[in-house]
Amino acid sequence: MTVTAVKVQFNRHFKEINQSQKRYRVLKGSAGSGKSVNIAQDFIIKLSDERYKGANLLCVRKVNETNRNSTYAELTGAINKIYGARAEEFWEIRQSPLTLRSRVTGNEVIFRGVNDARDREKLKSITFAHGKLTWIWIEEATELQESDVDILDDRLRGELDNPNLYYQITFTFNPVSATHWIKRKYFDIVNPDILTHHSTYLQNRFIDKAYHRRMMLRKEQDPEGYEVYGLGNWGEIGGVILKNYKVMEFDTSFHMFDSKHYAQDFGFNHANAILEVGVKDGDFYVCDEIYVHEKDTSEIIEIANRRGLDKYLTMYCDSAEPDRIQMWNNAGYRAVAVEKEPGSVQAQIDYLKQRMIYIHPNCVNTIKEIQQWSWKKDKKTGLYLDEPVTVFDDAMAALRYSTEPLRKPELNWSSERPRGW
Ligand SMILES: Nc1ncnc2c1ncn2[C@@H]1O[C@H](COP(=O)(O)OP(=O)(O)O)[C@@H](O)[C@H]1O
Ligand SMILES: [Mg+2]
């Protein structure tokens, strides 16, 4: 029962990484350089291979729940590409708890976080039906503390029965800060156990043209962000605007909140972002997102209909595009324009800074944006200005609009479920 990996293709620049059995494979790179897809494909092929019987993979993110939309999604994506309609014959894919098991080798994949003491304690009691923990993939590794990685590193010890097996930790990340411990620990030293790697979206032959255009825009408008997310160089994402947020799982049902509404920032080349925001005791809960590129309003409305957005909730929208607002209204949504006044951007940001912002792990694009949304820097003086950068800020614009009903109580808004809904 062998199926060859005919349907997956690889980017050549990861060849050495995929062949390496060094203890540490450390992949830094720009956004979109192909790191995550590559590592997922590499692991699925190896875990399916009889030669590596007894290998088991642990996938780690800082917040465990974010595994579902990242490592787990990439790995199941790779399984589906390789095996197509026969995926379930070869892999057991479980949702709760998230686990993958090769039916050929018995090798398993599990998922964990390192967000608190309980998470860390759980790392100590990991066992598998066959073999030991051999491989660890730390995705978005810059989110972790050095001590988290030390705990993980400690888990990879002892003799292995199968001579083909080896211990390995794989790191994937964008190099957000030149003072980050990962640079010191793995890049600033020469050590035979470490293989470091650098990649950019320019080397990824699968990336689309629109992505290139967005990156060029970023290069112009946000040179610091481009250095890190476009070129994958150690940089400094200074002047980050919002730090008062927490990614965590929570119940997104209507009754959990004092009120709920949507906020939308229109876009075509830029993303069109819609956030579903709950408010409880004055704090913001980003429950869900729709985040799409190069889609017409009618297509986005279709997506919203399919996703079952509630039509009785008010949707605060960018006032610059009344035609689009009209289309949403015609489709039965309660879309209203957010009036812009001088200083409103700063006022909205001030408002956001005074609350906690909880973000559901499903909102992957909101999470990505909030981590890097920063103040513009004056080219001459090097000082931060009182204006945010205007790229990769679409979910953030929607988040700003979502403050309107709270910032301006005179809007007299209500998110009560009308009779009959
Ligand atoms: N080997 C591959 N085969 C097909 N598509 C790929 C491959 N590698 C990358 N891609 C495409 O490029 C996009 C970006 O790759 P990804 O691995 O997510 O980048 P990174 O993790 O470096 O940010 C993916 O969403 C996918 O569309
Ligand atoms: Mg990635």
From TrEMBL:
Domain of life: Bacteria
Ranges for domain Phage terminase large subunit C-terminal: 265-402
Occurrences of domain Phage terminase large subunit N-terminal (ranges): 22-232
PANTHER family from the UniProt entry: PBSX PHAGE TERMINASE LARGE SUBUNIT (PTHR39184:SF1), PTHR39184
Name by which UniProt lists this protein: PBSX family phage terminase large subunit
Upper lineage: Bacteria, Bacillati, Bacillota, Bacilli, Bacillales
